[in-house]
Design goal:
single chain, 135 residues, mainly alpha, Cytochrome C3, two-stranded antiparallel sheet
Amino acid sequence: MKWTGCSLWMIAFAALLMLSHSPVNAQPDKMILDLSAISGKTTRPPVSFPHNRHVEAGLSCKDCHHIYENGKNVLDESKLEEGNKGIRCSACHGPKSQANLEQAFHNQCVGCHTKYEKEKKKTGPRYCGECHIRK
């Protein structure tokens, strides 16, 4: 089969189109983490979470997203698509779970940022007012 310039452009365009619709790119650049919508009134404002900054820093999807079975993260990353309510943190971290949603966010976010600080790596905020910014 002889490849023409047009054929190569079409293949390149198709590949670009496929990559641009990956689950990672399906997420908005900034997400608002608002517990008041789930748990009622809170004492702190919602958190603006820069999803793109975490992806650009080289974190794997499984560094944050997880489904643990026997101590192993068995998450199928193909399920990480915007709009899939089953992969939201609140799907597992409800009021009666071992770690409720607020605890899950704090454990995941602050835990990771603290770990990076101890390793002397560039990291994000670790204190309440750095994430929960009052207007």
